[in-house]
Design a protein that fits this description.
The protein is α+β, with helices and mostly antiparallel strands and 742 residues long. The protein has helices spanning 2-6, 17-61, 66-72, 82-94, 124-135, 139-151, 155-194, 197-203, 224-240, 251-310, 334-341, 350-368, 370-381, 391-412, 417-427, 433-459, 465-484, 502-524, 529-540, 550-553, 573-579, 586-610, 617-642, 657-668, 672-686, 711-718; strands at residues 108-120, 644-648, 651-656, 694-706, 726-728, 731-741. The strands form two sheets. The protein has a four-stranded antiparallel β-sheet. A two-stranded antiparallel ribbon has the order 2-3. The two termini are 76 Å apart.
Length: 742
């Protein structure tokens, strides 16, 4: 035994040395094996725990709200107790078998579990994400085949029609104002000449080429002074050379002639002053009117030049890059292109303006020769107060002055030859104005019919008290959601009005159709979020039954009770999402007005093609607008009766009422305010508040496992971060966080 301890065995005494060595080896192997076994168990435990955590949270989130999924394609956690579901799932998975002879290599035990909910369905980001997930396979195909393919063949000619409408609608008021100023110029020039009529009548009434002598008497004009002068001289000398014993016979008559002559001559200065002032003011106004007309003409030229620089042509076809086939061939825009060539005829040339300016200058020059002539006449006629006057000279002076003033009057008065000539010059480029004004009146009258029908539609809501109450509830839901998202409530759409001015209505309609093509181009180019939201709205929300308006459009509806159910917000959800009016008829009226505007734009394009032969661009525009308004009204009636209308007379592809709403959603929908409206409708229809429904959960699960060997060694190894859990006594514990989102 001593030799064993010292390591120096006695000779022949070796029993036991190998045993101790083996014990040491076995002890080391046992230690290594024990730690390795627990290490393997811990690794398996970790894997199993993670799998169990993921499975359990999926089980919890499988309890989604069925109604939201079935009605709106949305996922949100239902009404179950999530923590209880989690505990139940974990306990069922950790439950031991009833057999007692089984060996459990990984005896799990639940230490704790909890859930943390977040990402409410009522938030914009979450709701939009679920819409994108729901529609990412459906929307692009539906849109491309159902809508974009129908509109592609019209894109080029609609672009040309839009350019023409925009340009001519800008030129039309400038043109009319310019012509008004030119008319005002001629009117003021004529008025200036008319202001000299009193002077003319003072000289000779009526004007003539000769003055006949006559006896003393009343005086109507200055021409009576030399006409009576010879009789005046005769009577004067008869009294002068009478018999001294006889009284003078003509003293009173002679004095009366002198008095009348003095009175007649005394009137001239005030007449000339008035003539000068009125003539000067009228001519100044005529010059101002001509200057204004020239300014407007320059504005027209600038508008035309700017349009040609930035104008749209077929090379800029908004649909040229759409990677889809159109339903049929494109429509030729050649008639509209030819119309461009006639636009210059609306602009007056510099020579035309100069000619009118020269005519005005010549009138002023003629006028300036009147005053000295008439003033000189006054000096000659003063000789009639004496007996040394020359009646021939006086008559010549009167006739000369009368001729000068009368000539001015005949040239520049109301029916003056120069004024008539200048007016004829202006009328040369007004060949279609009278007919155009008549067409404008008819178009305005037709627009009045549309506006009257819109007023009737709005009035439908006045008797729908129950629907109004639901709209008030809907409005509250909407405001709550906007506040929840810290958003800003936008105003309702302004699309519910139709302008009474045909040009404004046509221009606005063309801008809308441009907006539709621009929005579709963006979508075809890859901007899909708006498309997904639009198509989601059209797929899951109800729209108004437009056939209910057929009787109203025909003015044959006396009892509106059949429309009562359609005034409820549940019957016009898509219109509400689009326009946002919180009343029973506002959204329907807005949809009707916007569809009419779209039909007006397409039909006006047809009108340009049909009426292109009229020549004058403004006449073509007016006729095209009247054509567009008349046919758009017919389209609206057909839409109400059949719920479908051809896209154009040149394109038989059908558009339904719903298709129009989808187009408008693409154009000016897709924003956050539409999300709030949809969420408000979901709450109204289901009673489920999306702001209280979670779509994301984080689970925190902690499990434990009994260690079999040397927990101290395992704990020591854990200090080196070899394990993600922790050791407490002879137990290994680990917490796992798992996330899940719909």
């Amino acid at each position: 035994m001593k030799s064993i301890i010292t390591g120096c065995p006695a000779k022949g005494k070796t029993e036991g040395s190998v045993t101790i060595f083996l014990i040491m080896v076995l002890a080391f192997v046992f230690l290594f094996t024990a730690v390795l076994i627990d290490y393997a168990r811990i690794a398996a435990f970790n894997v199993q725990e993670e799998r169990l955590a993921r499975a359990s949270i999926r089980s919890v989130m499988s309890s989604y709200h069925v109604e939201l999924r079935e009605r709106y394609g949305l996922f949100a956690f239902g009404d179950s107790d999530g923590d209880m579901l989690l505990s139940k799932v974990l306990n069922e998975n950790l439950h031991k078998s009833g057999r007692g002879d089984t060996f459990n290599l990984l005896p799990f035990a639940l230490e704790s579990s909890s859930l943390e909910w977040s990402r409410l369905l009522g938030s914009y980001d979450v709701f939009r994400h679920q819409i994108l997930e729901e529609m990412k396979y459906k929307a692009p195909v539906d849109f491309a085949l159902e809508l974009a393919g129908k509109f592609k063949p019209l894109s080029g000619v609609m672009a040309e029609a839009s350019r023409a409408t925009e340009l001519l609608s800008k030129l039309q008021p400038l043109y009319d104002e310019r012509e008004e100023n030119l008319d005002l110029m001629l009117e003021r020039r004529s008025q200036a000449a008319e202001s000299g009529r009193r002077v003319l009548l003072w000289i000779m009434n009526p004007p003539g080429d000769s003055i006949s002598a006559h006896s003393l008497g009343s005086m109507q004009a200055a021409a009576d002074i030399p006409a009576q002068y010879n009789d005046y001289l005769g009577k004067y000398y008869e009294d002068l050379y009478r018999d001294s014993k006889k009284p003078a016979k003509y003293t009173y008559q002679l004095a009366l002639y002198q008095s009348r002559t003095s009175e007649m001559l005394s009137r001239l200065p005030s007449l000339l002053t008035t003539f000068h002032e009125e003539h000067g003011q009228s001519m100044e106004e005529a010059k101002d009117a001509l200057n204004k007309a020239q300014q407007l003409n320059d504005e027209m030229r600038d508008v035309l030049a700017a349009s040609r620089i930035s104008g749209v042509n077929l090379a800029d076809d908004p649909a040229k890059d759409w990677d889809i086939p159109g339903n049929s061939g494109e429509i030729s825009a050649e008639p509209l292109k030819k119309l461009h060539e006639q636009e210059d005829a609306l602009i007056l040339s510099s020579a035309d303006i100069s000619s009118m300016d020269n005519s005005l200058f010549m009138q002023q020059s003629v006028y300036e020769s009147i005053e000295p002539t008439v003033t000189g006449l006054s000096g000659v006629l003063h000789e009639a107060l004496g007996v040394n006057g020359d009646s021939y000279q006086m008559i010549s002076s009167v006739l000369g002055a009368s001729h000068v003033v009368d000539n001015y009057y005949k040239k520049y008065g109301k029916k003056g030859s120069v004024i008539a000539s200048d007016l004829a010059f202006l009328e040369e480029h007004r060949s279609s104005d009278k007919a155009r004004k008549q067409v404008e009146w008819e178009a305005k009258s037709k627009l009045g019919e549309v506006r009257a029908l819109l007023d009737k539609i709005r009035m439908l809501g006045s008797g729908a008290a129950a629907s109004m109450e639901r709209y008030q509830i809907l409005h509250q839901f909407f405001e709550d959601n906007v506040s929840f998202n810290n958003g800003l409530e936008s105003q309702s759409s302004d699309k519910s009005e139709v302008s009474s001015d045909p040009y404004a209505a046509g221009s606005s309609a063309m801008k809308d159709i441009d907006g539709i093509y621009e929005a579709m181009s963006g979508i075809m180019g890859g901007a899909r979020d708006r498309l997904f939201q639009t198509e989601y709205s059209a797929l899951y929300f109800q729209h108004f039954d437009v056939s209910k308006l057929a009787s109203l459009a025909l003015n044959s509806l006396e009892d509106t009770s059949e429309l009562t159910d359609q005034l409820d917000p549940r019957a016009q959800e898509l219109e509400y999402i689009l326009y946002g009016f919180h009343n029973p008829a506002g959204n329907v009226a807005a949809a009707y007005a916007e569809i009419f505007a779209m039909r007006l734009s397409i039909r006006t394009m047809e009108g340009f093609i049909e009426k292109a032969t009229l020549g004058n661009p403004l006449a073509v525009l007016a006729a095209a607008l009247l054509y567009g308004i008349q046919h758009a009204i017919q389209d609206m009636l057909q839409l109400c009766e059949k719920d479908a209308i051809p896209l154009s007379k040149y394109m038989p592809a059908q558009l339904t009422y719903r298709d129009h709403l989808r187009l408008f959603m693409i154009m000016h929908g897709g924003g956050e305010v539409q999300l709030s409206r949809m969420l408000a409708l979901i709450q109204l229809n289901t009673g489920i508040n999306p702001e209280e429904r979670n779509t994301y959960v984080s689970s925190d699960i902690k499990l434990q496992m009994q260690l079999w060997f040397l927990p101290g060694v395992v704990k020591m190894l854990n200090y080196t971060a070899a394990f993600p859990g922790e050791v407490q006594g002879n137990k290994y514990l680990r917490a796992v966080k798992t996330d899940y989102s719909y």
